[in-house]
Specification:
The protein is an alpha/beta fold. It folds into three domains: 7-89, Winged helix-like DNA-binding domain superfamily/Winged helix DNA-binding domain (Arc Repressor Mutant, subunit A), CATH 1.10.10.10; 95-161 and 266-296, Periplasmic binding protein-like II (D-Maltodextrin-Binding Protein, domain 2); 163-264, D-Maltodextrin-Binding Protein, domain 2 (3-Layer(aba) Sandwich), CATH 3.40.190.10. Helix content is 43%, strand content 22%. It has ten helices and eleven strands. It has helices spanning 10-19, 22-29, 33-47, 63-89, 101-118, 170-176, 199-207, 224-232, 242-251, 280-296; strands at 52-55, 58-61, 95-100, 124-129, 142-147, 155-168, 190-193, 218-221, 237-241, 255-256, 262-272. Strands 3, 4, 5, 6, 7, 8, 9, 10 and 11 form a nine-stranded mixed beta sheet that branches. A two-stranded antiparallel ribbon has the order 1-2.
Length: 299
């Protein structure tokens, strides 16, 4: 049986020997100097002899320490080279994420650089779906869906419910007046996402005045981005999802037509494939996603 030292102590010794400084090695390893010194003492106790001489100007290897340092350095260099070679032959599988397309384009993409900055080693495979119940499409680790209920038999997290709000360009709001009556809404064109054709009626049922008028002028789009772009151009009033138009509202590029909101019956869910939460990358994305939802919920 091999008589090996505690392997977690060897990088500490190698760094101190290379720098001849406890403080410089501690900064490289991002641990307190006192903890590093404790690891060195533990290694010396295991070996039964000292490796370093403590001098006023720093640390210096003794004869035994120099011999041990050369062996440890060669071992760590060889281990690093083999690790890199094996990783190259077996690249890590990317984190596969499928999301409801409007959420992906307008909520997730503007924030994904933050996740990549925090976890640069995690590669991401992103894909969008026009279906709100995204788990019916494609092979993925995580699906972000927009539905009234999560799927049965899979792990999931509730993210947030969406808020329905009429929005338009500031120029159109000026034409309609400062506080237009609800019925004046129908003097302009109503814009909507064809995948969410019921949104206008849901909003009107919650806050409107009387039955939904017939004969209104409506213009539908098969992409949420086209809906928002048309509202920015002043083509009409769009029924927006608050979390997806918040940046335009904050910048003043769109304005709220009324201060009356309606809650969509659906909410966003993060749905995890069977066994996906065993992967560290999935757990790290899950934690980051929860943080972003808490930070970016509309006021």
């Amino acid at each position: 049986m091999r008589q090996l030292p505690p392997l977690n102590l060897l990088p500490a010794f190698e760094a101190v020997a290379r720098h001849s400084s406890l403080q410089a090695a501690a900064e490289e390893l991002t641990i307190p100097a006192a903890e590093l010194e404790s690891q060195l003492c533990a290694l010396e106790r295991f070996l039964g002899f000292s490796l370093l001489e403590r001098k006023q100007g720093g640390l210096a290897l003794n004869c035994s320490g120099l011999q041990y340092y050369r062996a440890v350095q060669q071992m760590l260099d060889r281990l690093a080279a083999v690790t890199a070679s094996v990783r190259q032959q077996n690249p890590p599988r990317p984190l596969r994420l499928r999301a409801f397309e409007p959420f992906l384009e307008r909520w997730l993409l503007p924030r994904i650089l933050d996740f990549q900055g925090r976890h640069p080693a995690i590669d991401i495979d992103l894909g969008g779906s026009r279906l709100p119940h995204t788990w019916l499409e494609g092979d993925a680790d995580i699906w972000i869906s927009f539905d009234e209920r999560p799927p049965a038999g899979l792990d999931y997290d509730r993210l947030y419910r969406e808020v329905l709000i009429p929005v338009c360009a500031p120029t159109l709001r000026a034409q309609l007046g400062h506080a237009p009556a609800f019925r004046e809404l129908f003097t302009t064109q109503l814009l909507y996402d064809q995948g969410r054709a019921e949104d206008w009626r849901l909003w009107w049922a919650a806050v409107g005045d009387g039955p939904w008028p017939e004969g209104e002028s409506m213009l539908g789009f098969n992409r949420y981005g086209l809906l928002i772009e048309s509202a920015l151009l002043g083509l009409g009033v769009a029924i927006g999802h608050l979390s997806l138009v918040k940046s335009e509202l904050d910048a003043g590029r769109l304005v709220e037509l009324y201060d009356r909101y309606a809650m969509a019956p659906q909410r966003y869910y993060a749905v995890y494939a069977e066994g996906a939460l065993e992967r560290p990358a999935v757990r790290q994305f899950r934690e980051w996603l929860h943080q972003q939802v808490c930070l970016n919920q509309p006021a």
